[in-house]
Write a structure and sequence with these properties.
Strand order of the largest sheet: 2-1-3
Oligomer: single chain
Bound molecules: zinc ion
Mean pLDDT: 95
Shape: globular
CATH class: Mainly Beta
CATH topology: Rubrerythrin, domain 2
Largest sheet: 3 strands, antiparallel
Number of domains: 1
């Protein structure tokens, strides 16, 4: 399965993997991760 970028829509934490975490490890929000493209991921991470 191809890995993708996901971003928490509450705290902007970026996760790279097959799926977004069920619960955000940073802000504890459930189902907060939305899929984003590589370009947006780099932007969020300040690259
Ligand atoms: Zn979060």
């Amino acid at each position: 399965m191809e890995k993708k970028f996901f971003r928490c829509n509450v705290c902007n934490d970026v996760h790279y993997g097959n799926a977004g975490p069920e619960t955000c490890p940073t802000c504890q929000q459930k189902d907060a991760y939305v899929e984003i493209d590589t370009k947006e991921a780099q932007k969020v991470m300040g690259l």
